[in-house]
Fold these 2 entries.
Entry 1:
Amino acid sequence: MIHTWTGFCALFLVACASNKGPAAASVQRGAGTVLSDMSADAVLYQYASAEVHYLYLQSYALARLKLDRNLSAPRQKPPAVIVDVDETVLDNSRYEVTNVALGRTYTPENWAEWSAMEEADPLPGAVSFLRYADSIGCAVFYITNRSLEECPSTLSNLRRLGFPQTEEDHVLCKEGGSDKTERRRAVAEAHEIVLLCGDQLRDMDERFKDRSVEHGKGMVTAMRDSLERYFVLFPNAMYGTWRDAIMERGTDAEKLGRVRRFFKDNAY
Ligand SMILES: [Mg+2]
């Protein structure tokens, strides 16, 4: 077992010399553990801070204000609210706590194990906001990048927590890529989308996938009017497009290398 930072670094260096065989496999575990440790503050903030607890309540209070305002405008079709699922209505921070405790990072397998447990808690304010939307005649659609295989357990998790309108045709899981544009368009065929809620800017507009210029901040400025009118953003310090843009895809060792380079490149 490697117990020290130096130990991990030594393993990491071995990986650079050879990327085949058992040595590479143990280096891989080492880099994953370092990445997992690096995420600890973000996970603590999300899981154990009253600040995030209140940020959700605050954001759902803002959602209600925006919903009421947008519903007062004339429209051609029945109104709909679209919400994302993970870190918008369901709280997966306990899964992330487990990753840190075990020194591991996300894999499709360990995520599938968690989502199948159906034990995600509701985020503060989510159930009451959506019940309010439901009570005033708004359609509610859940657009999530959980896979089709995960859809049944997601539905049952949402239903157990008392979320409204959790019929199968109101929970739109990922069938192809992670781009939600087509699913939003499908909702817009019969509804006027009056509000979107998500922990990622991509839950509003896929153009936010591009973080190549100023980490996407200029695009926020360019789209500020429509964001302020139609979107409510929730905090997620644990993962997202913002982090993927820096880590990119690849092995844990490759991701760790890119993160380290990012900090070095951006230090004063
Ligand atoms: Mg999400």
Note: Residues 84, 86-88, 198-200 surround magnesium ion (CB under 6 Å).
Entry 2:
Amino acid sequence: MRSARLTILAISNPPMKILVTGAAGRLGSVVCRRLHDAGHEVRATDRTRDPSLPVPVIVADLTMREVAYPLVEGMEGIIHLGNIPDAHRTDAQTTYTVNTAANIHLFQAAAESGVRRIVFASSVQAVSGTRTLADDVPSVLPHLPLDGAIPACPGNTYGLSKQAGEDALAFYARTHQLHAVALRFPWLISRARIEHIFQRGNGTSVDPDKAAYSRPDEGLSFLAFDDAAALAEAALLRAPAGYRCFMPAHPRGRLHGLRPGEIARRYFPGVPHKRDLDALGSLFHLDEIEQVLGWRPGNPE
Ligand SMILES: NC(=O)c1ccc[n+]([C@@H]2O[C@H](COP(=O)([O-])OP(=O)(O)OC[C@H]3O[C@@H](n4cnc5c(N)ncnc54)[C@H](O)[C@@H]3O)[C@@H](O)[C@H]2O)c1
């Protein structure tokens, strides 16, 4: 049964024909179910199958140029998630070449075929490199809080492939008048895991001894899969013409019980603050996403 919220969304936004790449993946499966429940016509594709999805998955490898054209044919929008999702799955060269090939094949075919709306899953790793909080290496961040205007400065070829994907999308938005959005997702996790993180450290803490949590590129914030899926949908339906880049996050991405201003002072010394971080309550500035797309993460506590 559909929720009241989804019903309202479906009425205010007429159903669209939407291609979802990476549909069998962790985020893709959540996105597919959400769009299907909202009444959209979903075409799902991936390199692998997922029989549990409400729509069949068209099995295709986007590194092959010719597969992209039939996939985008007749579509009004694309949510492009089909990439190698981090720097550790394979070697550096393969990560870069697979992702950039998939991205350019899909974007070029979409532009030629008249698809006007594209959302691309970029990553916080396009920005933050692989510096860890324990490093003495100075941060590359030009300012805090983080937002979509931070220039890319990746520290591995996964982040480099996301930077190239953002550049390619901006290029097609400019040359083909697209409504195009790159979403620099942080570490995506289940809502149950977020609750566990907050419970474990007196309600506010993330364990700094755990490497996965102590990396600024993944650990200073995170986002629930369902919030990320809701954002991808909002970006596809509501983005204005042109190219936009956003940097979403859970609004309470704290570390070891520290307030955001203290995190910044300890781990990002010398990085200028554009806003009072403690008043903002976060190292991420989410207002622009809300203003442009009408999205905020749900259940922040
Ligand atoms: N999970 C995270 O923490 C996170 C954080 C930031 C960004 N992202 C991005 O979000 C997207 C989805 O991530 P996820 O966590 O669901 O990853 P995932 O690995 O679960 O899903 C990605 C899917 O893409 C498919 N895929 C990869 N290369 C492909 C290709 N060449 N052709 C067709 N399909 C291909 C895979 O088979 C997989 O099912 C990715 O683009 C990832 O880079 C994820």
Note: The chain has twelve helices and nine strands.
